[in-house]
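Exam review. A common question shows you a sequence with its structure tokens and asks you to describe the fold in words. Practice with the pair below. Do the first one on your own.
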Amino acid sequence: MVTDAWDTRVPRASGDEPTVKERKKQMKYILKKNANMLILVALVLIICNILKALHPLIMKSILDVDITSKETLMRLFFAYFVVHILLVYSKNARNSVINRTMSKILRDLRKKLFCHVLKWDMTTYQKYNSSEIYTRLTADIENVSSLFLGTMQILLDDVLYIITVVFFMFFADIKLALIGSIAILLNAVVSYVFTQKVAICSKKILDKRDKENRQFSEMYNKSKLTYLFGLQKKNEEKICKTMDEELVYRKKWIFVESFIYPLAVTIQAVAIYFILMYVFHVDNVVSLGSIYLVINYIQKCRAPLNEIFTQLEEIQSASMSLKRINKLLNENGKEDIQKGEVVEDLKGDIEFENVCMQYGENKVLHNISFVIKEGNKVTIAGKTGVGKTTLANILMRLYPIKSGKITIGGKNIQDVRIQDVRKNISYISQTPYILNDTLKNNIILGDETITDNQIKKVANEIGFEKVLNNFSNGLEEKIDRSKLSYGQLQMIAFLRAILHKANIYVFDEPTSNIDLKTEDRIQKLIDKITTDSTVIIIAHRKSTIENSDKIIYLKDGMVDMIVNK
């Protein structure tokens, strides 16, 4: 079996942190997946840094050349111009290649995670909310891409440039190179202290801002309580205190950035200036061009040093993002819809035999046993929370059962392909699932065999044609669920279920938000179109229950009573 670094088929406890070995595999996976692009980035960064370091070196030669040697001077100016042009283009190439590489890494990671999440079973889906998944697919993946490109930028851009600069300084003058190296080291210390102070202040500011938002949200959501107990003044003082605390850290941040760092840089520059002037005074061998070269290199090293420490902070943040992404990728709850026996036409008697079901530690169904004859209309009744909807969920294999078995036509549905089980069952849930799409696409769900005339015919039979006629674009109207009533949304879901021909129909409270007149029309339509099908209705209305061949009453997750009519 061929696997990749992100393969999740190896059993692992849900939510376990990936090991160092696993992270290395994942990094190798990304490096291998984008090897050509990353090599190109490396080459462009190396060329760009050499050109950046070469630029001041040519200027040194220009300053040191004998002015009377016009031919040599012109050659040096030409070389300076050529290097300058190449430097401009190399910087643009660097940015272009880095952006293209980052885009590819982002796409690959997002695609990998997206496809993995889509294969989850329902149990795994319910462990996470949509906002958490969205954050992993966007912000966290961007951070992870920065982990690799940031590391490369530190090693091949910033560090390489500083090494090249030090080499060229020693090539120009050893004494000045030693002074320049000391200056660069001082720059490194200043940059490190500065970035650490700024990072601490920034984190404190963000923490206080989050606290403010939480406080305001709590106050707003509990506004009635605030008015009843006269807490306005106390709440005001509470949030203003947090704002004052935020202002303290913001002032510290401004002070460090606007005063401390410039002061440190200035003192450093003045000290180096006097040292260089002293060397130039006592050692006449040292040229003006060499002094220019060292000063220029010292100044140009400041930005890479700041970038190194900034990138290190971002890499640390990216590592946390990698942990969060790994948590999703290490989920083993994978649904294989192709696994099992192929049964295109699944029908027959439905039998529940000693079925037990639980969500985590919560036991929902206990030894459920009953038979639903093929072609019968059966109602599952009982109070809220007794397990009625759970029965529908496990029949469609949305959740696994703990013990027992469910058969359709004598076939254990656990042995049948999931896609075949669901293809033969048409379902309406308690909550209408509406896509951000046209009315037609919400009904047909990709089944192009369903025609507009078929949709309109069924809509007319259940009284939905009035709503349909109000849409200016008819079936091509984009659905805005905020402008439709819950009952109308439910009727759209009903249209969807009816038009997808099936051997078994499961309706979970299909008429709970529909008026009695419309309910009567729907009941008649159900009777009409399901003459050869098995119908399971989860309901509490008396009218629905009375129109059934069998009523199965549930209580406390068990079969309380079965009434045959």
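Now try the second one, then compare your answer with the model answer below.
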Amino acid sequence: MKKTAKVLCLLLAVLMLATLAAACDKNEGDTSSAATSNATSSGGGNSGFRLEKKDWDGVTINILTHNKREHAFYEFGTLAQETEIKSDNVSTAFQERTNLLEQEYGIKTQVHFTEEGLGAPTNEIEQQILAGLSDYDLVADGVQSLTKLGTQEYFWNYYELDNGYIDLNADYWDQSAIEALSIANHLYYITGEAIVSDNAATWAMYYNKDLLADNDLQNPVELVDAGTWTIDALYEMCKAVATKVSTGDTMSYDPADGDIWGMVSQAYDGLAFMWGAEQSMITKDEDDLPIMRIENERNVSAWQKISAMLYDKSCVGVADLFGPWSETYAKESQIFTNGNAAFMPGAITVLDGETMDNADINFGILPMPKLDVDQEEYSTSCTVYWATFFSIPTSNVEKLDATCYLLEAMGYYGQEMCTYEYYDKTLKLKKMDDPEDERMLDLLFQNRTFDLGAVYDWAGPTAGMLQFYTSMIGSQSSEIISVYESKRDSFQDAIDATIDTFTKYRSSKKGEPISVRPFFVFGLPLTGTLRLALCRALCRRLLAACRGCAAA
């Protein structure tokens, strides 16, 4: 009888081990789950939506976002909730999308706005998770802010979601962002046609058509078409236009004094010029791990050209170099819209907002200039402070499937219902009156890139990678190598810490979903290697107990 008990105990142990192992490794590398099979091409609703139509029975997905940008309001269909939103075609389109998702799929959305602006949603989600709460199912915030929780693995890895609802290869998700922002096959932030504020955050070059014509300068659109719109070409135009009429030894930053600048800018635009030159601070290796490239020869050459132009106070006015930021920053757009500057870099939100609506100038839009004629394509990027991305908190477990389904539907129907209203009918039709400008706008978005160094701001916030070029502009330094060498170790240490965080967890290959249903310990989710380690620890204790029983 005693022997039989021992055998039964061992058999039970084996059975429990098998069960635990299955719980730990379920579907690893397996893409044939039942959930995935639901992602058919049969469509749903009244469109070609790829997912099988499903009634989510009125589930409410709580979305947390910031309160400072008008886009954060109207792109989530919150006209009824926020009275300060202007009623226009874009707002109406997003409201109609919200209504459709509820009517066709039974998914309601409740949008919550933080009292503070960008970064506040991320901070709130952190407090929620630490407190074991799950009030919010989806967060929309500036991507640079979101990385704070990405490095703590407080967001679901999109590559590991196993329900088959989010198609990261779909054209309504920004493929450049997906490729650039993953590290070690961990992807915590996505953007695309579900919203418009990522487009509004994209850099462009604005120019005064009349000032260039008055100085007998070539139409820069012709240079763009010829592939010769370069930093050198921009600099030469700036020098040709600049005219000093004020008294004093230097150009005046007060439009009332009448000086004409070649270009007005700000220190942060240094990044925009570098990205226009296709020079990111970070590249990635074959294992999807970040590598610094600041000391690359072409990167150094680009900065020498850009800094030489930005530091030339006879024709280029960089707001930050003319006094305290609070006193001069706003004058950048004031000078341009008053007709006192030929060029001004700025995000698309400048075009989208009221700044240009009230400007009494004949302006156009261009891509950021190339480094030189050898550069094959024009390039641009986003201001990472408020380029809005989506992340799913790991506290979202019960409504994870519905949230993923909602995100995919927001992307698809955003492309179908909202993008045209924003891009074609608002940016183009209402803000532009020249087909050339419309064509340049299209060109802007053809090669938009993202720089991991700026997004993660390694070694930041005051002396991190996001401020690398900005700080050099502040000190008017062109010695990129010496500045980089003084910061390299701190940059690398921060990068290594992020890599260590991501690689210590079990990760799937891109496009191969695995099950990541977490254990919760003290309200906190355990996924990846931590989950596996917990399972193994329990198994070892069970085996030890069974061996003790058998020995007895």
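Model answer, second protein: The chain has three domains: 2-24+518-551, 32-199+386-434, 203-380+467-502. The first strand starts at residue 59 and ends at 65. Full marks require stating both points clearly.
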